[in-house]
Amino acid sequence: MEEEGKVGPDVYEGVERDTKTNEKIKEKYDNALERKEMQRADSIDILYFVGCTASYDINVKEVGINTINILDALGLNYGILGKDEKCCGSVFLRIGDYEFERLAEYNIRLFNSLNVKMLITSCAGCYRTIKEDYKKMGKLNMEVLHISQLLVRLLREKRLKLEHEVPLTVTYHDPCHMGRHSNIYDEPREVLAAIPGLKFIEMDRIREFSLCCGAGGGLKAGFFDIQNKMAQERVRNAEKTGADRLVSTCPFCYQGLQVGVNAIQSKVKMTDLTELVALSMGIEATS
Prior knowledge:
- The structure is a single chain.
- This protein has 287 residues and is α/β, with parallel strands linked by helices.
- It has one domain.
- Helices cover 43% and strands 10% of the residues.
- It contains 12 helices and 8 strands.
- The protein has a 4-stranded parallel beta sheet. The protein has a 4-stranded parallel beta sheet with strand order 6-5-7-8, with helices on both faces.
- The longest helix is centred in the first third of the chain and has 18 residues.
- The N terminus is likely disordered.
């Protein structure tokens, strides 16, 4: 275990789980993906774009599993790309790599060929990139939503019922791509407010004044010491609220803030919004 506040690459190990737990999560994830992989271009209404972080980081795979479980429970006609899904290109764009253009053009052609009505993602970075940045490369013939936006829509339509109490105290971190970049602040909070038994306390720095976790834009890969210090500061912000859980709507933030949790050995637990929703729906969440 790292000394408190120590900066080093091994703090990126994330949530410490035993081998059996990791194998269980991987099995659940693989089964979920295989079950929902698209078979025909015109067979679904909604495409769930999982994203690289939730697909490949064992510590964040539960974001994908919980999202799929929620969509299944809601009876939505959706599918995923599975092995055909490529990166959205967000990090390439942020670091100035022209590989972004190739990826964006490929994905636009692929998405449009599916004839879906909606593309959803549970990653703030994927959302901002596909929704906003792809406009410079071509037109998408479907609505693009973050999962929090879809959940709010279904709540208002009374199609999503959050009936099970979740007796936790939580605070919410605004991801840069969701907040300052896309002006999405209210939807995640509306979902949290709808969960019975949940006590929600805001941090001092929120919405457009939220502190960055430091995980995006290539910063974590290039300057892990800086990212570590940024994450520690944000986790300390969360600790001051007395919350049990620090909630995010971005696998990158989940991954990045976990660095801060590990570095200062915080008792705050990282949690994605989808886990709390799954629990309130009566679904066994994966965490």
